[in-house]
Amino acid sequence: MGRKRIRLRLREYLKERGLSVYKLVKLLPEMHPSTVYAIAAGRIESVRLSTLAQVLEGLERLTGEPVDLCALLRVEEVEGAETGR
């Protein structure tokens, strides 16, 4: 069994609902747009929990439904990685 990584799937979540990152950015004026776009593009290695909370709040406003953090996370195997145990 290889190592695992957790990936945020914000762009996929939005696309599944016919929404855009731009619409989310407009609902998060307190957050810099480049931060939201970087999260959506998967160009970040870490993110503050407070930032994720803001994104979830924005998604709830955008969709009109509760959004759980688990809906934005995907666990993947890291290719070529071995645990070394």
Compact overview of the structure:
The chain has 85 residues and is of the alpha+beta class. The protein is 45% helix and 12% strand.
Q: Please state the average pLDDT score.
A: 91
Structural class: alpha+beta
Rg measurement, Å: 14 Å
**Tally of helical segments:** 4
- Shape label: globular
What share of the residues lie within helices?
Answer: 40-55%
The termini sit apart by 10 Å
Q: How would a crystallographer describe the biggest sheet?
A: 2 strands, antiparallel
Number of strands: 2
Give, in spatial order, the strands making up the sheet with the most strands. Answer: 1-2
Order of helices and strands: EHHHHE
The share of residues in extended strands comes to 5-15%
- Low-confidence runs (pLDDT<50, min 5 residues)? none
What does it look like?
- The protein has 85 residues and is an alpha+beta fold.
- Helix content is 45%, strand content 12%.
- The chain contains four helices and two strands; from the N terminus they run βααααβ.
- A two-stranded antiparallel sheet has the order 1-2.
- Helix 2 packs antiparallel against helix 3 (33-41).
- It is globular and about 40 Å long.
